[in-house]
Amino acid sequence: MSILGIDHVEFYVADLRKAAASLCRDFGFTHTGPYDPGHRGAGGAQDGGDARPAGRSVMLRQGTIALVLTAAGGRGDPAAGYVERHGDGVASIAFRTDDVATAFDQAVAGGARPLAAPAYAAGHGGGRVGLAVVSGFGDVTHRLVERTGSAAESGAGPQAGAGPAGMFQALDHAAICLQAGQIDAAVRFYGDAFGFAHVFDERIEVNGQAMISKVVQDEAGAVTFTLIEPDPSRSPGQIDEFLDRHGGPGVQHLAFRTAGIAQAVRTLSARGVQFLAAPPGYYRRLEPRLGALAIPVEALRAVNVLADRDQWGQLFQIFTRSTHERGTFFIELIERRGALTFGSGNIKALYEALGEEQAARASAASRD
User: Fold this and answer.
1) How far apart are CA 27 and CA 5, in angstroms?
2) Among 11, 12, 232, 261, which residue's Cβ finds the most Cβ atoms within 10 Å?
3) Which residues contact 94 (CB under 8 A, 6 or more apart)?
4) Residue 227 CA to chain centroid, in angstroms?
5) CA atoms of 252 and 242, how far apart (whole Å)
6) pLDDT per residue over 57-106, tens digit each?
7) What is the chain's percent helix, strand, coil content, to nearest 5?
8) pLDDT tens-digit map of 286-315
9) Domains and their CATH numbers in the chain
């Protein structure tokens, strides 16, 4: 069994039209039509799961990124329960596999709870699609998808051919917030159930707050999860706030990879997308810390993009301000010029910027 990448990411949303319009208008995704509900697994982990049709789903694509948006078909639909608990958010991250039955058996043997046994159906336009569902973290499940024949060309994900070209090429990683004390168990779970390796970890402290981050990745580097938990020995911070507002563990952000981050930021800003600001003094210290950069410091300052380097190269990244009704989910833009890590030097900057937003929300709430 091999994990071949992320087939698609499914969001449960309250307003399907509004959510799809925002991603298409603001971020350049293309609405490629209804998503076949026969290929949609139901529900978050607390709801159970199966592969029966439910609700209404559409697919949005850009590059090799495939996003499925699903709205509930009624109060008993799993999407309704998810949105009630968490607001709009990622409910399933689907892994592409070359053998869904073997992948399912290995995931269950490794500790994943079985939510839907492997089932097969004819793919759209021919071929065959195999589908199974297992538990992940919190209310987020993992769908296992096997596509053969023409279904492999017409389906979602990186092995199905690129979608419409645009600013974003691929899903670089997903950042997942976990409750304190859960991160080591999560690393073991992804190793045992899916064969992911623990490739990176660090601890960040800012203004009396602290977080722990560990990265797991499949063998080919096609699936990357950045796992984050708060340090309860320090003051509560923005990870604690996410867990409280979201109602438990969940996906904090998705990182979309681009080949031209400066132009992408200009384009998105012109469409009304807002980004987190770098802390004061960030750009003064940038070149002394990193040396010469592929994008000049003044050009980075003009679009508020952060930079870092590792032994393999450089990376550039920026984070949107959350427009989520609970202030939880947001999007990262990332451009890699050889770098394989995740902007260690910028995590503190992100943490400070999110902390400033947290303080602003608390101040606004106190005035109400």
Assistant:
1) 22
2) 12
3) 6, 7, 8, 9, 10, 142, 143, 144, 145, 156, 157
4) 11
5) 8
6) 999 999 999 999 999 988 789 999 999 999 999 999 999 999 999 999 99
7) 30, 35, 30
8) 999 899 999 999 999 999 999 999 999 999
9) 3-160 (3.10.180.10), 168-367 (3.10.180.10)
